[in-house]
Each structure stands twice: as structure tokens, then as C-alpha cells.
Amino acid sequence: MFKVQDASPDQSAPGCLALRGKGNGGLHGAIQGYRDQKKLNQIQTKELHIGLQKSSTFNVVRARGDLEKRLNRQGITVTWSEFTSGPPLLEALAAGKVDVGETGDAPVIFAQAKNAPVVYFGQSQPNPEAVSLLVPQGSPIRTLADLKGKKVAYARGSSAVLLVVNALTKGGLKLSDITSVYLQPPDARVAFESGKIDAWAVWDPFYAAAEVGGSARVLVNGRGFTSFRLYFLANSNFAAANPSLLPILIKDLRAAGQWALQDPKRSAEFLSGVTKVPIQVLQVSEARRLGRYQVSPIQSGGIKDQQKVADTFARLKLIPEPIRVNDIVVNVGY
Question: Of 49, 152, 156, 196, which is the most exposed, with the fewest CB atoms less than 10 Å away?
Fold first, then answer.
């Protein structure tokens, strides 16, 4: 793709998509046609297709409606597609079926390892309390070491992967010591409640739903195992053709997050109609969704966290070779 030597803020004008360093191919080559300020401030698209999940900050953006009003005035329509987890969203993003989206940490690492045409442009603050490794209320599993030989469900390639591998390491175990059961959250909940799996690694609001339903006990949450940030991503070709759009998205995501943080109970009620998640579940998840609502352009802290994930996955042979996260980072000059 391209190389970025330093992703810290620079003096680029707002609306510019800045590259820090040299490279070739992919986004770097596409952006070279936007050398002058006038072209850098262009937005070519007439439609913005956003991918989101139940856990997405984009849900607040969608519900508030400010982004759509702003872009509609510029002749741009906004469409939305919901995904059950990060991996299918990343697949759609790489294929150009959606233009931008957000996922947790692991899906982007797996996508980059496959040379998917995606770039980072934003991040949230850490929020490890919003992901958990659950066991049934009556389970004999009390420690991480007790997971040996057990069936543990999680979505393949999702942000739950990092929690699972790091929790197993702390318990003196490896992935090969458990039976991994790859299920998307809705299917995993059915398997969990019917006793077909022994443990389930999942994030909010699915985590909160299991708690509220009374069927789950937290073995560990993400503290000490994962930063559990959100990352905001764009298809590389879309980012190159529409560099001024990314700062607009960051601004709206930040405003939506600040609005949600002001009153979590209000945001739970507000989001229930959009996500179809019960209010009592969202009241639990919104109360602990503090870091994920604090949005900024991609920064060094987020990049360092992602590089740790990439290095862990390379060491465990979950990806075929080491990758450099900085190679797919853009500075939007926010």
C-alpha cells in the first residue's frame, strides 16, 4: 500500500488527506493525482455508503441525522448497511460495497494481512470494559485455566479473538488447548443458552444482553487483555477520491460521541429505536461505553495498540507474516 512515517498531527489544512513518507501502489499512487489544494478539497462521490454494527458509534450519527442533512446539502446521499461483526463489514469494505465503516482491532489486522484495500482514518479511546469472556451462571469454570478442553465461541476474525488468545495465555493455555467454535453473536447466544458451548467471548450490546437475560457470568472482561478501541476505516480508492469527506466524518462522529456521553440513559433510549436492541440492554452497555465514544483522527496510541495486536497474531501464526500497521494509515488533517 503506502508508508506513513509519522501519524501524529501535522500542518495539513483541514480536509486534506496527508501522506507522511514514501511508498507506491494502492492509496499512495491514487492520491498522487491530488497534489494541489483545490483538488485535495474535492469530494467526488454523490453517495456515501456506511457499514455499521450494533456496537457502532455510527448508530448515534445515523439516529441524530446531522451528517445526512449536511451531506444532502452538498448533493450526497447516505445509505447504511448493518453487519453482525467486523469481518463481514471488512469484506464489504474491501470489495467496495461500502465506503467507510468501523470495527474493533483484530478484523483490520486480518484484512491487512490479506492486502485488502482499506485504510485507517480514525480511532476511539480504549474501552476494555465493553468486551467479556462469559460462562453460564452455573458453570464450574472459575479460572482461565479451567477453559482447557472446553468449547469457546467467538466470531472468527473478530475483535473477540484478541481477548481469547491473551486470556488463554494468562491462564497458561494456547488456542490448541480449547475447541474454538466460530459463531456470529446471534447464533452464539443461542448456543450459549442451550448449553452447546462452555464459554463465549463477545462485546456489547450482546455482552449486556446476556447479562440482562441472567444467563451469563463474567469470567474476565477485556481489562489487561485488549484496549478494545474502535477504528474508523475507508476503502482506499474511496479515500483517495474523496479526501475532504473523512474529516467531516470525524467531526460528526466526535459530536455524536460527546452527545451520547452527556447522558447514557438518553442515548440508550434514543438508540433503541434504531438498533432494535431493548432499552434495558442498552442502558447497561451505554453506561460502560466511555472510551468508544471518544473519537479522534488516527493517532500514535491507536497505531501502537494495533501493532501489538499484529505482532501477537504473527507470533501465533494467526497471520502468515508480520505486518506494519503504519503502512495503511492516513492523516486526515483534522
Answer: 196
